[in-house]
Amino acid sequence: MIIVMEKGASQEQIQAAIERIESLGFIAHPIIGVERTVIGAIGDERDKPMLQQVENMPGVERAVPILQPYKLASRELHHERSMIEVGGVQVGGELIRVIGGPCSVETPESILASAQAVKAAGGHMLRGGAYKPRTSPYSFQGHREEGLKMLQAAKEATGLPIVTELMDPRNCELVARYADMIQIGARNMQNFQLLTEVGKAKKPVLLKRGLAATITEWLQAAEYILSEGNPSVILCERGIRSFGTETRNVLDLAAVAVVKRYSHLPVLVDPSHGTGDYHYVHAMSLAAIAAGADGIMVEVHFDPQQAWSDGSQSLRPDKFARLMNDLKPIAKAVGRAVDW
């Protein structure tokens, strides 16, 4: 439920409303606006009628139910679009943001080469997997902490913030120590214990959509993170499973527009996993920005044929640089801007 305070409500009245909400067993999330303050009251749906008594308090204008099953992620509570800072880079504003890098962290030399290519083309963050969820138990699973150290060295050399995946709640503290943003992969979108842990970690989180998840389920997964007091969640559409074999997944660009309508959270698109084929990454990246995405995450490898994982969907540095150049007129056409 949303508690809407009157224009000019005093700080004492706002604090009294917060204390009353919390005394009823709810978590209060105040949002200070230019003209008025609203307070999100999050808790057990069965106890919602109890909140009506807050409506009679001094300084309170009205109490309004939040209709969506996701509360903190909803634009009903948070009308303005959120901007999330990741290692000094703002995501969700006018500027388009680009994350690039290899699927897996392989060697110190290769991750540095990819990082330098991303930096030279104007990319804003470096991605790379130190822990890798693989369909086959015999596939390369990642270098783990050694991979995190390689990412850290590449960051020190280029200044690019690090985005890397977390798979196990037991590794949350370790990954958070190195990462500027923790990625939750598609396979773990509904790993609720993991979502709770990254919510507690208070690091920015990149939440990928599950392979067969509805948009509502995706936003409810974000709710787990937000409800732990971590407001820094960025969504990432990366394709959903279908019956076609021409592409790895079906990249659902309509999801970008839907999420923008119902949620205030920034949205990125991953055309590499969305298509599984580097031939289509360029076109789908342009389409993602045209659809309203706040940025893209693209796999970049200096030698895709020798990549230890997902080489078929990775761009060479020269193709990545061309993509960055071609994004400029698309961003301008849809009222966005670039800084490269």
Kindly describe this structure.
The protein has 340 residues and is of the alpha/beta class. It has two domains: 2-64, Phospho-2-dehydro-3-deoxyheptonate aldolase, domain 1 (Alpha-Beta Plaits), CATH 3.30.70; 84-333, Aldolase class I (TIM Barrel), CATH 3.20.20.70. The protein is built from ten helices and 14 strands. It has helices at residues 11-23, 108-121, 145-158, 172-178, 192-201, 215-226, 254-262, 271-275, 278-290, 317-333, and strands spanning 2-5, 27-32, 37-42, 60-64, 84-86, 89-91, 97-101, 125-127, 162-165, 181-184, 205-208, 233-237, 267-269, 295-299. The strands form three sheets. It has an eight-stranded parallel β-barrel with strand order 7-8-9-10-11-12-13-14, surrounded by seven helices. A four-stranded antiparallel β-sheet has the order 2-3-1-4, with helices on one face. α2 (108-121) runs parallel beside α3 (145-158) and α9 runs parallel beside α10. The longest helix has 17 residues, at 317-333. The model has no long low-confidence stretch (mean pLDDT 92).
List the helices and strands and how they pair.
Layout: E1 2-5, H1 11-23, E2 27-32, E3 37-42, E4 60-64, E5 84-86, E6 89-91, E7 97-101, H2 108-121, E8 125-127, H3 145-158, E9 162-165, H4 172-178, E10 181-184, H5 192-201, E11 205-208, H6 215-226, E12 233-237, H7 254-262, E13 267-269, H8 271-275, H9 278-290, E14 295-299, H10 317-333
Parallel strand pairs: 7-8, 7-14, 8-9, 9-10, 10-11, 11-12, 12-13, 13-14
Antiparallel strand pairs: 1-3, 1-4, 2-3, 5-6
